[in-house]
Amino acid sequence: MATDRTITLAARDGKLFVLSEMPGYFEPTLGRSWYALGLRAADYEQFVGCALEPTGFGDSTYRIFLSDGRPGPTVSLPGGGKQLPEFHETTPIAPPEQRGKALETRWMNGRWEKLTARGWQLT
User: Fold this and answer.
1) Count of domains for the chain
2) Looking at the domain assignment, is residue 41 inside a domain?
3) Distance in angstroms (rounded) separating the CA atoms of residues 78 and 65
4) What pLDDT does residue 82 have?
5) How many Cα atoms are found within 13 Å in the side-chain-facing hemisphere of 57?
């Protein structure tokens, strides 16, 4: 089973968000949930796009990791992380491009696979 969930710090409409992205398990889609932090994006501009890791205190407090891997400050969702996302978007994930003879592809468990002579393989 694929667990390709990514969590990053994102800005939208001048506000700061925890952006959780996860591919669909049965359909080739990418779900994006935007959780408001109640902070101004301008105050954290240098951290936008950085990866977030839960600190172990539930799913509401995150440590920011800088692009070079160093840990940064922490941010917390208001209300202990019990709020619904402010925005949710679902976008399709296109099949991988192929060169030469096109192989049969399928979406399985959150990933694209291709049918080769050795059976179904991850693309």
Assistant:
1) 1
2) yes
3) 20
4) 78
5) 11
